[in-house]
Design a protein that fits this description.
The complex is a heterodimer of chains A (986) and B (262). Chain A is α+β, with helices and mostly antiparallel strands and 986 residues long. Helix content of chain A is 30%, strand content 25%. In chain A, strands 19, 20, 21, 22, 25 and 26 form a six-stranded mixed beta sheet that branches. A five-stranded parallel beta sheet of chain A has the order 6-5-4-7-8, sandwiched between helices. A five-stranded antiparallel beta sheet of chain A has the order 11-10-9-12-13. Chain A is globular and about 90 Å long. Chain B has two domains: 109 residues, Ribosomal Protein S5, domain 2 (2-Layer Sandwich); 149 residues, 2-Layer Sandwich (Ribosomal Protein S5, domain 2), CATH 3.30.230. Chain B has a five-stranded mixed beta sheet with strand order 1-2-3-5-4. In chain B, strands 9-8-10-11 form a four-stranded antiparallel beta sheet. Classes of the chains: A alpha+beta (986), B alpha+beta (262). At the A-B interface, β2, β3 and α10 of A face β3, β6 and β7 of B. Chain B: It is found in: Cytoplasm; Nucleus, Nucleolus. Chain B: Keywords: Cytoplasm, Exosome. Chain B: This is Ribosomal RNA-processing protein 42.
Chain lengths: 986, 262
């Protein structure tokens, strides 16, 4: 087939792009018309020709010329621009962002397309670079595919990559030719060997990344940040490292697709066990329980959270989940980063027919015994790689060596393997928290290869640890960008709610104002934790003439300020939630809104979204009304102060009476909820008190609950339910809701077995009500804490609640199991949760206040939002917990003590003990339990570990749920430099 | 052009005379000039356009789809559309059924085979833009040239997927030529004792009968059958005419194939 170019007009030509798309086994020939033009400028300020050809774009703006007329000089003195191949951007985006190098960069459009397909985050980072071009860094995209001069046609027998490489070379040579007269060199930087060789053959100025960095005058500073890749310039040392060890190859796409279609391969995401980094599991749709993946070879380079394709192993290799604790920090500590060794495994092929039989066996086995089907990873669909925080393992480096050397970086996340980096500054970086990225994991390497990105600071310093945990949990903590801040009201702090809602001047600014109801006469107050500045909610109660109560819940009207489709909205959606650390809060919305304009502060007028109920004496809803409003809170209470005021019999004013009524009604509401089967679960929550002056952590306290806590909580739950019902009525397909699925019985199997064996108790799973009742029955008269312990254990067996849009599930599945309500959403904290923002917009549309934005009516957009919310919500929780853990460690650093603990897991080589006082749990390894490790005996079916204890050499049995005395002290792990509670049995 | 009874009689007698005198001066075994263009539809896998000197014009497009042989057995489907004739008319349906049966039975299905489970299925769309004489020969020639210019996606995954299932995956650009023996159909008209090939419209009107002869892989094959070309002159066929027809095709076909393949 011969492709022709047809001239349409002056400067416009049409040609065709032809390709074959294989999808689901089909092959479709696709022909696209492709238009070429002559008016694409080079965007160099030096160029005097292109200025004559440019045409304005759709917004009638002319392109800006970005590249400097006097670009940076190489070490040899020549001025240059750089054309980058896609692989350079993908591998070294950090380097590209580094202000010390890459000052004038041209990205061919074809490379940009490839980058977008391979990694969207890197693509957005590159786009940001292009957008923010300034004096130090100028990055442009040249649309080579649309330029008549640089478009290349694909040749017969040429792979698409070769064709794209050729297009990049053509772009480079065009630039070189174009800018020749201005004495600017154009340099192609690529790490693709073929491309490089061709470029040099064609007489282009081309270099690999490493060679290019050599050419820079400040090359020494930059070398460290070079990505560690198995480049074609094989380094001598790496040859050793690439010894016999080899991971199994991944399957071809054809095999994966065919296998998944015929039901012999399965796709899922890997969850690495928190106790054993060589044990992973994959939840698969057909199986009732996750399928195990055991060992390095079977995991086959999968990281925690990767999307993988697995195949079942033959029956002889099925195993019980391991009872050994193993983490990457203590495994192969002495492995040499310069040499990996391993052994080869013979394997036989199994036909698909046999595999299908195997699947049936596997499903049957899962239902019965202890032995579990195992699988192995045959392909990785999507990597979960991001930047990781860790520190250099001291044993892995040679302190005498001043030059570049290999080092292992042990990551903070214990379920991930060490990362091998090459650095010149190993000695300097020792004892620092550093950020690294994973570049690749070739099959001949035992550990993934990565490179150093930046250092965060000394291990244990508050700044480094806080930043580390934010990074680790993927929390966006950078300040809000200028674009986002521009969306805030122009008045800033001065913003005031209009005095009079019918004031024509105010209406001209905000045409929706007349739709607001003036509730400034209501006696509204807010009750929050002490020191709370982002007040989301306020309440009021008033007795009606008929004896019923008018109850109002007023929620900060965030959507008045955060309009859909603004950069502010996009930022909020991407952050999805505020993150609360012990000493710090990472806001979802800029300070001005969160703590001032939206916050329902006392004594000032604020916009609110109000829900007004009429409740009868038994807290039954007689009527409900939703409205946007203006309110004036009379007082902001803390839980304690509210409690004191209610309890004080001398206070007889209307506000206090209202609060008393709220309290009475909330007790009735709670009782109703409990009767319906709401769960009262527990987690070992503690609070760290900070010394107010030095902000050093002082002491740890278990959170106390007051009646006023549940006062607020009950009305928020009621509000959320009322709103959920309303928006579901208005938007049956896309209402923003939250659900909590009933836990599958299998989750409770082991816990029930433990309870049965040790205490003769059991947890019923018939309904949430039965579960609540059976939890109440799990009481050990000798140990009041035991019930809480069981609740903590049950919480861990529960499913996580999730955000969803109503079209994603059927009505029966909307249930919130934990709260025992049929439909639920989050509406009451729009300042710190994005779900609530969406719910606000949908409710506003439902009551006819303003039309709903399209994005909240589109299933696929809602799906995307929900997924992000669920992820960010989980991360925020983990980050908060990690922060507490860190501070608890710091507290304990100063006070070593002996505490009561409970055994919550028993392993082959250790036990896990929970210390309620600090809310910490820690592993006690067998070697710390006994001197005679050989004597230890582990009985999995009894959850018992016996060993000879101390000097007496008496056998001691430790069972699950045993109450033990432990010595708690904080130690710094020498390998991970992570401070954690060390527990020793007394 | 409608001929009067006398004109028809005159024409019939000319054609029946020895040697036959054809109105356009052709020999009995001579075709009208035709023009063929191939591969002119970018989105299809193969295409051809044929134009005969009397203005009959026909376009053939070939598209492919990957199918599981266990599900779909017929790997070739021909769809015929003739301008000015309803889809359910005898002419259209007759031609479609002849072509379908012929291609399914005569074409080597192995050449469409991809793996042990999957094959290409070909969709042959025939569009006759204008027809002044019986279009079957022209359609057949067009299909022949279209199939011979057909480029199918190149399989890059393994072709053995019986034990270990694989979904076929294709090269994103390269195509491979379809290699297949395509049968040709010849229509001949019988006038008296004469046999003439490629009858023009006026000749068809006065022919005593029509014969359809199939040629595949160097020999005459089934089906060989009669074809009613008009309603007034049709008579029975004498065996000698059949033998003559087959002999004429045997002589002609190699020359025509040679012309088409060049």
């Amino acid at each position: 087939m011969v492709l022709q170019r047809k001239r349409l007009a002056d400067g416009l030509t049409v040609t065709q792009k032809v390709f074959v798309r294989s999808r689901n086994g089909g092959a479709t020939k696709i022909v696209r018309e492709h238009y070429l033009r002559r008016d694409i400028p080079c965007l160099s300020k030096a160029c005097k020709k292109c200025i004559n050809i440019v045409v304005p774009d759709a917004k009638n703006e002319l392109p800006t010329f970005v590249l400097s007329e006097n670009p940076a000089k190489l070490a040899n003195g020549s001025r240059h621009y750089v054309v980058l191949d896609a692989n350079i951007v993908l591998q070294a985006i950090d380097l590209l962002e580094n202000p010390a190098c890459f000052s004038d960069v041209i990205i061919p459009q074809i490379a940009l397309d490839e980058i977008r397909n391979k990694s969207y985050p890197i693509y957005t980072r590159l786009r940001t670079l292009c957008r923010d071009s300034d004096d130090t860094k100028r990055v442009i995209v040249f649309h080579n595919e649309f330029s008549e001069e640089t478009f290349v046609e694909r040749l017969q027998g040429e792979s698409i990559n070769d064709r794209n490489d050729r297009a990049i070379r053509r772009t480079c040579s065009w630039y070189a030719q174009h800018l020749k007269e201005y004495a600017i060199n154009v340099l192609l930087v690529t790490n693709d060997r073929g491309n490089l060789e061709h470029a040099i053959k064609e007489g282009l100025n081309a270099k690999s990344l490493a060679d290019y960095v050599e050419l820079l005058s400040n090359s020494d500073d930059i070398k460290d940040a070079l990505p560690n890749l198995e480049t074609f310039r094989s380094k001598d040392k790496d040859l050793e490292a690439r010894s016999e060890f080899k991971f199994p190859d991944y399957y071809s796409t054809a095999r994966i697709m065919g296998g998944i279609k015929s039901g012999v391969l399965y796709q899922g995401s890997v969850q690495i066990s928190e106790y054993n980094f060589l044990e992973g599991s994959v939840s698969l749709p057909n199986f009732s329980k996750p399928v195990l993946i055991l060992g390095q070879k079977n995991l086959n380079r999968a990281f925690n959270g990767d999307q993988v394709v697995v195949e079942l192993l033959p029956q002889v290799e099925w195993k019980a989940p391991s009872t050994v604790v193993l983490d990457s920090e203590h495994f192969d500590v002495n492995d040499n980063p310069d040499g990996d060794e391993g052994q080869t495994v013979e394997e036989e092929t199994i036909s698909d027919k046999q595999r299908r039989l195997l699947v049936q066996d596997a499903i049957r086995t899962q239902k019965s015994g202890k032995v579990q089907p195992t699988a192995r990873v045959v392909s990785i669909t999507r990597r979960s790689w991001r930047q990781y925080v860790g520190q250099i393992a001291p044993t892995s480096i040679d302190l005498q060596n001043g030059g570049t050397q290999n080092a292992f970086v042990v990551l903070m996340d214990k379920s991930l393997p060490k990362i091998r980096i090459r650095t010149r500054r190993a000695k300097e970086l020792l004892g620092k928290r550093i950020v690294v990225t994973v570049d690749s994991w070739p099959d001949t390497y035992k550990y993934p290869l990565g490179h150093f990105v930046r250092e965060l600071g000394d291990v244990e310093s508050v700044e480094a640890e806080t930043e580390a945990l934010l990074l680790e949990h993927d929390v966006e903590y950078r300040p809000f960008s200028k674009k986002v801040l521009e969306c805030l009201p122009a008045d800033g702090d001065e913003w005031k709610a209009p005095e009079d809602l019918s004031d024509p001047e105010a209406i001209s600014k905000d045409p929706l104002l007349p739709k607001r109801r003036d509730l400034r006469d209501k006696l509204i107050c807010s009750i929050d934790p002490p020191g709370c500045v982002d007040i989301d909610d306020a309440l009021h109660a008033k007795q009606l003439p008929n004896g019923n109560w008018e109850i109002g819940v007023h929620i900060a009207d965030v959507t008045h300020f955060v309009k859909a489709n603004t950069p502010l909205d996009a930022e909020g959606a991407s952050r999805s939630t505020s993150v609360y650390l012990v000493d710090k809060r990472i806001d979802m919305l800029p300070m001005l809104l969160g703590t001032n304009l939206c916050s329902l502060k006392p004594y000032v007028d604020r916009f609110a979204f109000s829900i007004l109920w009429e409740l009868d004496g038994d807290a039954n809803i007689v009527n409900v009304d939703f409205t946007k409003s203006v309110i004036k809170s009379r007082e902001a209470f803390s839980y304690e102060r509210a409690q004191l005021r209610i309890d004080d019999p001398n206070q007889k004013d209307e506000l206090t009476e209202g609060m008393r009524a709220l309290l009475q009604l909330s007790i009735k509401l709670k009782q109703k909820r409990l009767d319906a089967g709401a769960l009262n679960l527990a987690s070992p929550e503690v609070k760290v008190h900070m010394d107010s002056e030095t902000s050093d952590p002082g002491e740890v306290e278990i959170k106390k609950l007051l009646a006023t806590n549940s006062l607020v909580e009950e009305f928020m739950l009621l509000a959320n339910q009322s709103v959920a019902r309303k928006i579901y009525d208005a938007f049956p397909q896309t209402a923003m809701l939250r659900r909590h699925a009933a836990p599958p019985a299998t989750n409770f199997e082991i816990l029930n077995e433990m309870l049965q064996l040790r205490k003769g108790m059991s947890i019923s799973l018939e309904s949430s009500k039965a579960l609540a009742a059976s939890l109440d029955r799990c009481v050990d008269p000798n140990d009041p804490y035991f019930n809480t312990l069981v609740r903590i254990a049950s919480t861990r067996c529960m499913m996580a609640a999730q955000y969803f849009y109503s079209g994603a599930y059927s009505y029966a599945d909307y249930r919130h199991y934990g709260l025992a309500v049929g439909i639920y959403t989050h509406f009451t904290s729009p300042i710190r949760r994005y779900c609530d923002v969406v719910a606000h917009r949908q409710l506003a549309a439902a009551i006819g206040y303003e039309p709903l934005d399209l994005s909240h009516r589109d299933k696929s957009k809602m799906e995307f939002m929900c997924r992000n919310m669920n992820k960010k919500h989980r991360n925020a929780q983990f980050a908060g917990r990690a922060s507490i853990e860190y501070y608890v460690g710091q507290v304990m650093r100063n006070n070593e003590s002996e505490e009561i603990g409970y055994v919550i897991r028993v392993f082959h080589n250790g036990i896990v003990v929970l210390v309620p006082k600090f809310g910490v749990e820690g592993l006690i390894r067998l070697e710390n339990l006994t001197d005679d490790e050989q004597s230890a005996e582990f009985r999995a079916e009894e959850f018992k570990l016996s060993f000879k204890q101390g000097a007496s050499k008496e056998m001691k049995d430790i069972y699950i749920f045993d109450k033990v005395n432990v010595q708690v002290k904080s130690i710094l792990d020498p390998v991970t430099s992570k401070r954690k509670a060390q527990l020793l049995l007394k | 052009m409608v001929l009067s009874i006398t004109e028809k009689l005159y024409l019939h007698e000319s054609l029946a005379s020895k040697p036959p005198a054809r109105p356009d001066g052709r020999n009995a075994d001579q075709f009208r000039p035709i023009e063929i263009f191939t591969d002119f539809l970018p989105t299809s896998n193969g295409s051809s356009k044929i134009v005969a000197s009397d203005g009959t014009e026909c376009i053939v497009s070939i598209k492919c789809k990957v199918v599981d042989r266990a599900v779909e057995e017929e790997l070739v489907v021909v769809d015929v559309d003739i301008a000015g004739h309803r889809d359910d008319s005898t002419l259209v349906q007759g031609i479609a059924s002849i072509l379908n049966r012929l291609l399914v039975s005569q074409m080597d299905q192995m050449s469409l085979r991809l793996t042990k489970k999957y094959s290409f299925k070909l969709f042959i769309d025939v569009l006759v833009l204008s027809s002044y004489s019986h279009p079957l020969t022209l359609i057949s020639l067009a299909i022949y040239s279209a199939l011979n210019s057909t480029q199918l996606p190149t399989l890059i995954s393994s072709d053995d997927d019986l034990d270990v299932a694989e979904l076929p995956t294709f090269h994103d650009y390269d195509m491979s030529k379809l290699n297949v023996k395509v049968p040709l159909l010849f229509t001949l008209a019988i006038c008296g004792k004469n046999v003439i090939v490629d009858p023009a419209a006026s000749e068809s009107d006065v022919a005593n009968n029509g014969v359809l002869v199939t040629w595949n892989d160097g020999k005459v094959v089934a089906p060989v059958r009669t074809l009613g070309l008009n309603e007034d002159y049709v008579r029975g066929i004498c065996p000698q005419s059949l033998v003559d027809s087959i002999r004429m095709v045997e002589e002609l076909a190699p020359k025509i194939l040679k012309a088409l393949d060049n």
